[in-house]
Amino acid sequence: PDPVLAIVGRPNVGKSTLVNRILGRREAVVEDTPGVTRDRVSYSAHWSGRNFTLVDTGGWEHDAKGIHARVAEQAELAADMADAVLLVVDANVGATATDEAVVRMLRRKKKPVILAANKVDDMVQEAEAAALWSLGFGQPYPVSALHGRGTADMLDAVMEVL
Ligand code: GDP
Ligand code: MG
């Protein structure tokens, strides 16, 4: 079977946009309001002549558990079925308490994590991406899922650990 890459992160950071960018087609549902991606959706993807399975996560309806717990729970389910994890953070917002909750969960999994600092649409925003070194997953890869900026370097890094 193909190796599995799970895309995790809090709502609205651009996970589904990044999935579409990687797939090269608009298949994952992107919304301006969070809460539209079903819990976990798998896609067949390829890069550098290799096939892999991409798992997009969502399902962020606010229930009694609250948003932190829902995000961490969905991220954990996806991470458990994955060989590597692509953690997406909004570089313009920076690391939030919800991001930190996901980071703590991922650290326990001991699986390879590549950190994507998304919404870096231009060079000026790269400083914001660099601030995400603080999350402890090594080099943050500055990307713009919307425009495709930086995604090739990020995918090369993913392939080294997948
Ligand atoms: P998800 O909830 O993490 O799956 O996020 P979505 O992919 O649905 O995107 C949420 C919003 O962020 C949408 O309005 C996207 O157009 C926007 N977005 C995603 N990636 C980028 C990016 O690289 N730059 C900018 N400026 N906006 C983005
Ligand atoms: Mg989504």
Describe this structure in words.
The chain is α/β, with parallel strands linked by helices and 162 residues long. The chain has one domain (4-161): P-loop containing nucleotide triphosphate hydrolases (Rossmann fold, 3-Layer(aba) Sandwich), CATH 3.40.50. It is built from five helices and six strands, in the order βαββαβαβαβα. Strands 2-3-1-4-5-6 form a six-stranded mixed beta sheet, sandwiched between helices. Strand 5, helix 4 and strand 6 (140-142) form a beta-alpha-beta unit. The longest helix has 15 residues, at 66-80. The structure holds guanosine-5'-diphosphate (GDP) and magnesium ion. The site of guanosine-5'-diphosphate has 19 residues, from helix 1. Magnesium ion (MG) is lined by residues 15-16, 37, 58.
List the helices and strands and how they pair.
Blueprint: E1 4-8, H1 15-23, E2 40-47, E3 50-57, H2 66-80, E4 84-90, H3 97-109, E5 113-118, H4 126-130, E6 140-142, H5 151-161
Parallel strand pairs: 1-3, 1-4, 4-5, 5-6
Antiparallel strand pairs: 2-3
Helix pairs in contact: 2-3
The protein binds guanosine-5'-diphosphate and magnesium ion (MG).
Guanosine-5'-diphosphate binds at residues 9, 11-17, 30-32, 34, 37, 118-119, 121, 144-146.
